[in-house]
Amino acid sequence: MARRLQVSLTCLTLCIFGTLSAAQPAPSTKSALAKADSAAPVTLGDSVVPLNGPWKFHIGDSPIDPQTGNPLWAEPGFDDSTWENVDLTPKSGSFDPVSGISNFVPGWTALGHPGYWGYAWYRIRVRVNTPPGTKLALAGPADVDDAYQFFNNGTLTGSFGEFAANPPKIYYTQPMIFPLPPSAGAGQSSQVLAFRFYMLPNTLLQFNGAGGIHTAPLLGEAGAVTAQHQMQWNELERAYMGSFIEAIVFSMLGLVAFSLVLFDRSDHVYLWIGALLLLIGIDRTMGIIGIWTLWIPANNLLVVRQVIFNALFLAGWVMVWRVWFQSRRLTWVPRLLPVLVALLIITALVRISLSPSWRLLPATCFSSPRSSCVWPWQSCWCSPSLKESGPRALKAGLCCPR
Questions:
Q1: What is the C-alpha separation between 313 and 318, in angstroms, rounded?
Q2: Among candidates 286, 287, 278, 282, which has minimal Cα distance to 320?
Q3: pTM score, whole prediction
Q4: Which of 108, 158, 243, 328 is deepest in the core (most CB within 10 A)?
């Protein structure tokens, strides 16, 4: 009986203390509210914005203002209301089929202009609202076909490729960054951004959807845009890191093959294998130099690698197998091989020069709306709106000169 009374008193005491503690306000809540009231307000904004559009787009090239000497299509007051609308928003998981660069958008050949190469323009008007003194910059599209000039409010701000030549000198695509003038970062400003593009005819053969912009430009605060520009370079380096490793491996294998001559000076097969592997390493190295630098134009590099190096590779393998199997009967092979290599290079150059996709046409239309080509099954079409802008191909085939 005493034990039950003791248990009952204990339970009653616990209930009373629990009720009193529940009735008291929680001091931690007041403390949290006090800290929240004293916190400094923070406003977060977009430091970098992808310019997905819609962009205004038009094939052809701009007429020149006789007074200023600048393209009329770059001027802020130009009326582009009749131009096409182009959206550069990428699909989820999209990537370039050639380089593997992410956020890929198909070019103008997939947007109603199949077979067209030459000049084309993109324009967009943006209203920028930033604190006074903010420095702005624009990261150019990281994936393009093939070269472009960038205009800000009608002023040429920068370019990728050399437009002093005709046609422009093309390089493999690289990320670019363009600082905008100080006036663009003082309070609220309206900017008209324009890109003048040029694509070579042989780019049409690389993949479906070639032409113009494949990744949206980035506009924002200069420091943040610089960081995004570095990330684009990192992605480009990762995309071609395999070729860089191949260049190192083949070069090292070539040196190892040369070193084997020290153990057997009578066997010349090591010399030929070393020379061939070293040549492959040089080929991969030149490819990396052309992609990661602006030292070698893209078409020049393509001719060197696909014409000259391919012929030397075939000749090298012929000599490797001849020495490997000790074929002494065919003594004329070493003497005839240089002639065959020269003929192979010449025929490859002739094939390239005769290929419609490699012919660089003048940037003017033909005198008549429709004119015959060298090949009777092809024809060219030039609408009046494309006057002075280069030929436009039909659905089948490319244009070729008279």
A1: 9
A2: 278
A3: 0.73
A4: 108
